Fold this protein.
Amino acid sequence: MIPAMASIILAGVSVEFPVFNAASRSLKNRVLSVATGGAIDRRVDGHVIVRGLEDVSFCVNEGDRIGLVGHNGSGKTTLLRVLSGIYRPTSGSAEIHGECVSLINISLGIDPEATGRENIRLRAAMMGMRPNELREQFDDIAEFTGLGDFLDMPFRTYSSGMQLRLAFSTSTAIRPEILVMDEWLSTGDEDFKHKADRRLREIVETTKILVLASHSRELLQKNCNRILWMDHGRVRMDGPTNEVLTAYFG
Amino acid sequence: MLPTKTGVLAEAFADISAALKKHHLATTFSWQDVAQRYRRSRVGAFWLTINMGVLIGALGFVFGTLFRTPMQEFLPYICVSLIFWGYISSSINEGCMAFIGAEGIILQVRMPLFTHVLRTLYRNAIILGHNILIYPLVLLAVGRMPTWDVLLALPGFVILSLNLLWIMLILGVLCARYRDMTQVMQNLLQVILYLTPIMWMPRTLPEGISRLLLDLNPFYHLISVVRDPLLGELPSATSWMACIVFAIVGWTVALLLFGRYRHRIPYWL
């Protein structure tokens, strides 16, 4: 099999959410006054819709390390979901070539009553790891957690640092072509932090495309070669890291 | 822009075949669902068996007496009926929640949506597996020997499950969009429980009541194809035909609906 080039092409992408229970005007008004986010509209059939993204177009090629910036409600999460193939745009098109994994909530799928080992299995399945891949990697993951005999104890007995170690080790064992991350994962004590940072850097280097949403200027500067600035569901600026970051952070 | 009919079907097929290819997901999560409920309990998932056993004993005694049916006949009947009704009704009930309940997963990771329907069915099949253990015990208690006909319950179980899957798929989609549907279904299932011969036997129907009450009830046919063989009878050809037609028509509707609205489901959650 010839390895295909990974790429993402968004053309005129808009995303509109129906809000079925916002029928009353008062509620609508409340939403209007609170939302810093997308535009709120009433469709012909009476449903209230929230426009999360509006006419977003850009191309991502292999080697792109994209940073997403924008205020709360500017459409970052919605965009991440479009890029991971969770939301299909309500208009426009999104072509995503390549296997995509999103590291958004690294604790998803964890069962507090199950042992560490069982949770590695559960979490790995959630990440889309095949059973045979998991078998190969299981020992590595278990070792990376550094939890030793605690792996046979229920997850709920772990300290929060230990819980993060387990979730992190499993979630980052996968090497996707396209990686979508909401915030950099920083974890645990100093000792593990170094290990974790090394592991993250390794992923960033091996994935063909990285999309990272973050509020940290330093982090974006270190990891990205291109920044998208989202504002009210639109791309406000798209360009080289330093240029956009200077405009955004001032 | 409305997609064409073939496009809709292709969409549905793509999702379902992806889910079947990754069926380890559905198996892993469904075992997990059952395990999670009974962790830290000594008897574990066998509480299911115990609960069902108690229910069968109690209802068997009450209704057997009421209908003046010999226990030797009534106890196996109500045992098999309740076990499989449990499978049918909780699959359908939980099918309504298949997508709503998996919101966290659906909005975070890309996974075939049909996986969540499969997971719900597998979970109930695992529970059924625990409950069915009561069946040989009941046979033993009333001193009846199973016949080879029992084996016919297997194809019956397959056609029943195929039918449940499309019902769950349709309900999963509808309930994600219209949240009231879940309540409607719960009520409907309550009514069906009494309309269908589950706690009563078909032959206890009083004279003058038409057999149509049975023949027009799809749930009668669905339960008959598994229940009859387990009670040493051959299921009627009518029941089998009804189940097959039901499956074909149902799946066609389900595929069209699922294909058409599959990509809208995340927006509704």
Summary: Residues 5-268 of chain B form one domain. Chain B touches chain A at residues 22, 24-25, 28-29, 32, 35-36, 39-40, 104-111, 263, 266-268 (CB under 8 Å). Chain B is about 75% helix and 0% strand.
